[in-house]
Amino acid sequence: MTPIKECLIGKRTDINPIWLMRQAGRYLPEFREIRKNNPDFINLCLNSNLSEEITLQPLNRFGFDAAIIFSDILMIPYGLGQDVKFKKNFGPCLGNLDVTKLSNISESDFTNNLSPIYELLGNLKKNDKLKNKDLIGFVGAPWTLLVYMINKVSPKNGLVSNFFSDISLINNLLKILDKFIKVHIRNQVNAGATIIQIFDSWSGLIKSDFDKYLYDPTLSLVNYTKSLGVPVICFPRGITDYSQFCKIVKPSMINIDYDVDAKNLLKSVDIPIQGGLHPEILLTNKAHLKKEVNKYLEIFKDHPYVFNLGHGILPETKIDMVEELVRIVRNYK
Ligand code: 1CP
């Protein structure tokens, strides 16, 4: 059994399992080299040979316990026919939202549009480098995808002022997303994903109607993934009550963000836990890194825990700090 699977069934493992959110990406020189020659990000995600190489880059360097496929949460709006572009030094830009068009797309059109992602998983499944490691497929949660699809750009500077003006549009989109996110989960599982992670990167922006935007849609995906026999990790970044989230949604594992009081959370959560370390700690120095990493390892020493960050690794992270991080985690007794 893989170290992460052992953790998921509640066992303490001999090694402390570790992987990092956004582990394949811009902090790696070998990724930047490929990216330089592939300016169109969506095309890169749809190139199953290059995306296989990129997925394996962090494993080759650091020996993490899981590969997470090189793809993006915005491949779902793309697969549904909304235009998605990534602009340099700006981020994602989505095109007009035509709900009639989205409502007419069939499951097979959607699956065809994203078929290189499933090919990627099929190829990785056969790769010896993933022996005794997990292969993580992922989706964006309905709320976070809704945010990008309506907002059209990153909500890091807030939601557009008329975000909630068309409730019937929102309700329609939530239904469409529930259906097609499930199709994407099922296709990834059928192609070889051994775990699914649900990224709700912008759940911290939900201020009311938590059932409608957070709990109900996530629970629906969690139950669906479990029914396929695959564990599911949730990352509801920035929410204030992780304990309540775990009680209602019951994921197989919860990924905490860096604002979570880990010690306090342990009092009320009994499922396996992943993550927590602030990615900025990797920009400091080795002594400080050791102190902060040990804090998490100490708190979770008697709890099933997968080491990870409290959000994605930053592009300016130095390779030797990641190497040091892995050494600290592996050597902790
Ligand atoms: O070279 C580049 O400019 C591309 C940068 C990049 C990369 C490497 C983007 C654009 N996406 C990715 C890959 C990616 N995205 C992965 C696979 C790699 C890995 O994890 O190892 C995953 C899991 C994601 C997931 C993702 N995309 C999330 C959820 C996780 C998170 O960080 O919160 C989100 C919010 C996105 C949207 C997105 N894609 C890319 C950017 C720059 C963004 C964020 C935009 C924003 O700030 O709103």
Structural overview:
- The protein is an alpha/beta fold.
- It has a single domain (3-72, 116-139, 174-331), classed as TIM Barrel (Alpha-Beta Barrel).
- Helices cover 47% and strands 11% of the residues.
- The chain is built from 15 helices and 9 strands.
- It has helices at 3-8, 29-36, 41-45, 48-62, 75-79, 99-104, 107-113, 115-125, 142-151, 167-191, 210-227, 242-249, 262-266, 286-299, 319-331, and strands spanning 66-68, 84-87, 91-94, 134-140, 195-199, 232-235, 253-256, 273-275, 305-306.
- Strands 1-4-5-6-7-8-9 form a 7-stranded parallel β-sheet. A two-stranded antiparallel sheet has the order 2-3.
- Strand 6 (232-235), helix 12 and strand 7 (253-256) form a beta-alpha-beta unit.
- Helix 8 (115-125) packs parallel to helix 10 (167-191) and helix 9 packs across helix 10 (167-191).
- The chain is globular.
- The model has no long low-confidence stretch (mean pLDDT 97).
- The chain binds coproporphyrinogen I.
- Coproporphyrinogen I binds at residues 21-26, 35, 41, 68, 70-74, 86, 91-92, 138, 154, 156, 199, 201, 312.
- Coproporphyrinogen I is lined by residues 21-26, 35, 41, 68, 70-74, 86, 91-92, 138, 154, 156, 199, 201, 312.
Label this structure with key terms.
333 residues, alpha/beta, TIM Barrel, 9 strands, globular, binds coproporphyrinogen I
Layout of secondary structure:
Blueprint: H1 3-8, H2 29-36, H3 41-45, H4 48-62, E1 66-68, H5 75-79, E2 84-87, E3 91-94, H6 99-104, H7 107-113, H8 115-125, E4 134-140, H9 142-151, H10 167-191, E5 195-199, H11 210-227, E6 232-235, H12 242-249, E7 253-256, H13 262-266, E8 273-275, H14 286-299, E9 305-306, H15 319-331
The structure holds coproporphyrinogen I (1CP).
